[in-house]
Amino acid sequence: MEALSSAPETSSFVPIAEHQSRTPSSFYSGPAVLHYHSQRCKIVILERELLASPELNALRGENTASSATQDDEKELAIDGIDVWVTSDKFLLFSPAASAGVSIPYPSISLHALQRLRVPGAESDAEVQGLYMQVATPTAPSADDEEECITLTVVLATDAPAQTPTDGEEATETPTQELYGAVSACSNLHPDPVEPGDEDDDMEDGPQFISAEDHEGVFQLGNGDMPPPVDGSSGWITADNMDQFFDADGNWIAGGEPPSFPLGPGAGTVRAREGEDGTEENGEEDDETKWRKTD
């Protein structure tokens, strides 16, 4: 979480509608894409959690209402907050306090829609808000759980819904659109892979078994054996079998034949089966072989 001393310029971002209407010249450079922007929002947060974050506490100004929760904790509602949901970061700014915060998406461990009562509101009716858990950069606790600050973004009652490009009537509420924007941008910033999340053997790329590591494994193309043909992936296949075995299944390649068993039928060349169930060379087929049935 990073403190902001000046308000973000909306014109410095590419609107999502414009971004989707054309192919960008580069997917790795250029201005961030603005997925959602709303003014005069409220931030609902417990006072003790607000005090635990100097960056968020800087948003607190005169337009702050409070109320007590069921646990006798003071819950605050900070008014007049502008919100930007960009492809780079999630931004909050208070024009009255001339302070804001920039929150990287990997720090948002959870976001969801919530129904709540806003402290200091004229009505006791519940409203819809975007609930968020934001990880703090403090050291992990004794139980290895990451410390988080919870807050809820409540849009202004007159916040307009985004008008669909095809002119149809909007089917989502502004808060649902805010949630969708945060979800889309969070997907652009997956959590980094932590040590131990994957097998140790995969840390430096795929690991392959060699003849020295495992008995009975050999690699084609080494020693006197010819290299595999294209597309064989290093195995003896129907495309390159004639380089290793003759028609009777005898090893004809240079060097010693592989010492491990190749499995039943390896190297055996069978004649095509005739319609009467016999081999075309006139020999009777094995009695245990399955016959084709109508």
UniProtKB/TrEMBL annotation:
Subcellular location, principal: cytoplasm
Subcellular location per the Swiss-Prot or TrEMBL entry: Cytoplasm; Nucleus
Database matches in Pfam families: Voldacs (PF03517)
Signal peptide residue numbers: none
GO cellular component: cytosol; pICln-Sm protein complex; spliceosomal complex
Residue segments, region Disordered: 185-208, 247-294
Record flagged with keyword Repeat: no
TM spans (from-to): none
Assigned keywords, A-Z: Cytoplasm, Nucleus
Biased composition (Acidic residues): 194-204, 276-287
UniProt feature coiled coil, ranges: none
GO BP terms in the entry: mRNA cis splicing, via spliceosome; spliceosomal snRNP assembly
PANTHER family reported in the protein's UniProt record: CHLORIDE CONDUCTANCE REGULATORY PROTEIN ICLN, METHYLOSOME SUBUNIT PICLN
Name of the protein this chain belongs to: Regulator of volume decrease after cellular swelling-domain-containing protein
Organism: Penicillium olsonii
